[in-house]
Please model this.
Amino acid sequence: MNREQYILAEEAVKLIKPGNRVFIHGSAATPLHILRALQKRYNELRDVELVSITTLGDISFSSPLYKDIFFINSLFVSENNRAAVNSSQGDYIPVFLSQIPQLFREDILPLDVAIVHVSPPDAHGYCSLGTSVDIARAAVDTAPYVIAQVNERMPRTHGDGFIHVSKINAMVRHNEELPEVDYSAKNDEITRMIGGHVASLVEDGATLQLGIGAIPDQVLKNLTSHKHLGLHTEMMSDGVVPLIEKGIIDNSLKKLNKGRSVTGFMAGTRKLYDFVHDNPAIRVVDIGYVNDTSVIRQNPKVTAINSAIEIDITGQVCADSFGTYQYSGIGGQMDFIRGASLSKGGKPIIALPSVTSKGISRIVPFLKEGAGVVTTRGHVHWVVTEYGKVNLFGLNLKQRGKALTGIAHPDHQEMLEKAFFKRYGS
Model:
C-alpha cells in the first residue's frame, strides 16, 4: 500500500473476522491503540484467538465481556493476560522461545492476521519492528494480513526488523509513549548480594545473556571493572546502556557479530529506546537466530543469567508456574542454559532469592504438584542465592542436595536436611 494511506484503528480491525488467529506484537511494542479498537468490536466477533508472548501496558482481555469472543493462547504469560490464561478464556503453549517462529513458518500455528507496532517509514518505504523483532519477524512473514500501528516514538532499530509498507495491509498513525519497565527500582540488600555473587562468576571477555528482572540488572551494576564483554541476549534492558557507553561491553571477542550487541527484544525506559534508535551497534534480530544453541555456543564464555520460582534438591528448576498456576513461560531459559554449557568456558547460571516475600523457601525437597520443569537437573550448572553459589555440574543427587542446602536460607536448612535424610538415609 502507499505509505501515506493511513486509516483509523476502527477501520483497520475490520480485517479481523470471527474464528481468526491473530498475532499481537509484544513487549514494549504492544500495539495498545489498535488493541483497544479491537476490544470495541467484542459484540461483532466470536472465537478470535490472540497469540503473543509477553505484552506490556494497560490492556486486559479477562473481562467477562470477552468470554467466547477473545481467547488468549499465550506463548509466554505476562501480567496483563495472566488472569485470562488461568481461566476458561485462555491457555498456555509450552514451547522454547527459539522454536516459536517454527510454529508460524511451518503452519503448526498458522496466523490469519498480525497486529504490529512500527516506526514511521523511511525514505525508501521501510518501517522497523523497533523494540521487538523476536517472533514478530516470522509473524509478519507468514500472516496474510498485517495491521500496523505507526508511531513516531517507536525507535528504528537495525537488524531483521525492516518491513516495507507494501507488506502492510492497514496502517494506523498513532503516536504514544511506549510501555516502560524500570528493573532498577528494586534495589534491596538481597538483590545486591545475589548480584555480587553472580558478577564474581563473570570473566573478562564473557558473552552475556541476561533474563528479565532486578537480579540481572544488579549484576550489570557490578561489572564496571570488567573488560571486553560481549552481549548476545534474547532481551535487553537499561542496565546494558552504561556498560556499552563506557566500552565495557565492546563485543570485540565474540566470534559472531563482532563489535555489535545482539538481542531479540528490549524492555526498559525511554533512555533505552532512545539509545537503540538508529544505532548500528545494536542488532535486533529474529529469535530463531538469537536463541539457537548452535549460534549461542560459538561465542566465548557465554554467561547466561536467569532466574527461577523454585528449585528442588536434585536441581530441577521451575521458572514458569506456581504449582498449576501459569505465571510466565519457558521462554529462552533452556535455549541459553544449554547454549552456555556448550560454549567454551561458558557458565549457565540460575540466580534466585533463597525465600519468597512471605519467607517460604525457594529451595525445596520437591517441586509443587503441577509445577513445570523448565530447566532439567541434567542441564542446570551454577545456582546462586544471597547465601552463596554452587556448581551442580558433575555432582550426584546426594552431593547436589547437600550443596543446595548450603545456600538455602538458614531458617529452612534443618527442614531440607530432614528431607534429605528421609530420601537418602545419610
Observations:
- The chain has two domains: 9-173, 184-424.
